[in-house]
Design brief:
The complex is a heterodimer of chains A (about 240) and B (about 260). Chain A has about 240 residues and is an alpha/beta fold. Helix content of chain A is about 30%, strand content about 20%. Chain A has helices spanning about 45-50, 85-90, 100-105, 125-135, 155-170, 180-185, 220-230, and strands at about 1-10, 25-30, 35, 60-65, 70-75, 140-145, 175-180, 190-195, 200-205. A 6-stranded mixed β-sheet of chain A has the order 5-6-7-3-8-9, sandwiched between helices. A 3-stranded antiparallel β-sheet of chain A has the order 2-1-4, with no helix packed on it. In chain A, strand 6, helix 5 (about 155-170) and strand 7 (about 175-180) form a beta-alpha-beta unit. Chain A is globular. Chain B is an all-alpha fold and about 260 residues long. Chain B folds into 2 domains: about 1-35; about 45-255, Orthogonal Bundle (MetI-like fold). Chain B is built from 10 helices and no strands. In chain B, helix 4 packs across helix 6 and helix 5 packs across helix 8 (about 170-210). The longest helix of chain B is centred in the C-terminal third of the chain and has 39 residues, at about 170-210. The radius of gyration of chain B is 23 Å and the shape is globular. The two termini of chain B are about 15 Å apart. Classes of the chains: A alpha/beta (about 240), B mainly alpha (about 260). The interface between A and B is medium-sized, with 21 and 17 residues.
Chain lengths: ~240, ~260
Amino acid sequence: MTGLSIEVQEKRFDALAAPVIGPLSLSLAEGEFVCLIGPSGSGKSTLLSMIAGLDRQWQGRVSLAGDAPPGFLFQEPRLMPWLTVADNIELVCAEPSRPRTLAMLDRVGLSDAAGRFPSELSGGMQRRVAVARAFINRPPVLLLDEPFVSLDAPAANQLRRLLESLWLEYKPTVLFVTHDLAEAIAMGDRLVFLGRDPAHIIKQLRVDLPRPRELTGTAVTACLQALLGEHPDLLSGRL
Amino acid sequence: MPANNAAVTYRKAYRGNWLRVASIAAFFALWQIAATLSADADLLPGPLRVLNSLRDHALHGQLFFHLGMTLQRVAIAFVLAMLAGSAIGILMGRLRWTNSALDGLLVIALNVPALVTIILCYIWLGLNEFAAVAAVAINKIPTVAVTVREGARALDTRLLEVGHVYQISRSRRLRNIILPQLYPYLLAAARSGLALIWKIVLVVELLGRSNGVGFQLGTFFNFFDITSILAYTLAFVLVIFLLEAVLFRPLDRHIGRWRAQ
């Protein structure tokens, strides 16, 4: 079964400008965790906006399994500052239920925070709320746009563990955008590398390492070094 | 540390209140001195005489009836102007073509003198209650629209995107994502709006109504009864203070309660 598929013929920001995303097609199996890696400015966030329906000005088509809104983790937590933590989570629920919200908060380790406002929480805790919001409706598809970039290493690691355990529990199809190769190897079932001008897929790679994978562990590091040894310019978008 | 902060906040609030009372007391003292020095007590009656007159009008006169009529007109015109002005402001702030279409008209509407609107409303709609309230509301709508437009332009796209991605319903998006960002602008429009409406309502009543504070002031003017004019003014000021204390300030606090202390 396909969890998510997108076929882009072309995406331009301006009719006269050069295309930012060229012919590109990507398909994710149901429950698959795919990491999309590309240099900054390569159009990976744009691609995510197109899949999520935020950007509709392009030629091609996209289909999400389950016909429900995807869960989305932005680069910033993007919580409503005037809503409490629980209200922020319930904002995305068509039929909010307080027990379900509290159970989800408990699951992400924020059992005491339900009645607090986002400004009273640390950056890491705000991300946890955003993670809870992304999972509360058990979406069939989850889209992540470099959600852990501005966190310190321990906090980012904790959140990666949390994300992985929630993914294993609910098994949504995940498309995770990142420019951090070690993070991608530690998280993904499959890596998809993008080249630029316009964005296109230059390489795909299955990662069959056993989970849980340690970000700085030997398995991840060995895989990373082998990959960069073979393609030194991979992260700049060239093979 | 939090307890210490609370103490500082409390002390600051206390000093603020003290200054507020002191400035008003100083004003009344100056008024009394000026009244004592002036030769004609009818031309500049002192605060005590005005307070006495206020009591007489309240107990034996028709102060409450006229004040009530005026307040009723203020309330209706205020609600109409806030609703229409906010709707126009949000539209103009969010849809570029409505802004292009209405911007010129808005500039005209902002600059037509209140008196012209009032006279035209009375001539075209008749000397009735509807024309009176309409004249006040029309005067106020453009300033509300301009203020709310600023707010609508400043809406945070990143938060609006959350609403789109999660396919939150239109009404919940309005209530939980859009309006909270507009509250400061709506409150500013309401405050300045009320101040403007007070002033215009009195002119409307003076020109074309047979009750209300404006009508009464006109009558006192004909009899050169300055004490009564000041007594009515005082009653008016008290109502405004009351509204600020029981309505706007608690509302301000309620809306801003999520901001970190």
